[in-house]
Amino acid sequence: MQHILPYIQVILSLLLIGGVLLQRSEAGLGSAFGADGMSMGRFVRRGAEKTLFRATIAVATLFAIAAFLNLFLGR
After folding, report:
1. SS3 of 11, please?
2. pTM, rounded to two decimals
């Protein structure tokens, strides 16, 4: 298990980076010119964006578990 765990962490980290980069940024161009997020309405995730958000959370959780396993099994 110790030999394969670093490879799992690399794959999970790449998936996590991709998931974060694919998500929509809520701080758009309007916030750069002084518009706050409250005046533009509430943002609700729907469809594929909601699925991507939940998948990113799942991958982040798996990455954290793999990191703790590496910490405890590495001894």
Report:
1. helix
2. 0.74
Between CA 66 and CA 5 the distance in angstroms is 7
Residue 36 has which token pair?
A: 């706050």
Domain map (residue ranges) of the chain = 1-24+49-75
Look-up of token digits 């729907």:
46
Report the distance separating Cα 23 and Cα 25, nearest Å.
Answer: 6
- Cα 7 from Cα 3, distance rounded (Å): 8
pLDDT confidence of 56, banded at 50, 70, 90? very high
Contact 3, 75 (CB under 8 A): no
* pLDDT at 39 exceeding the cut of 90: no
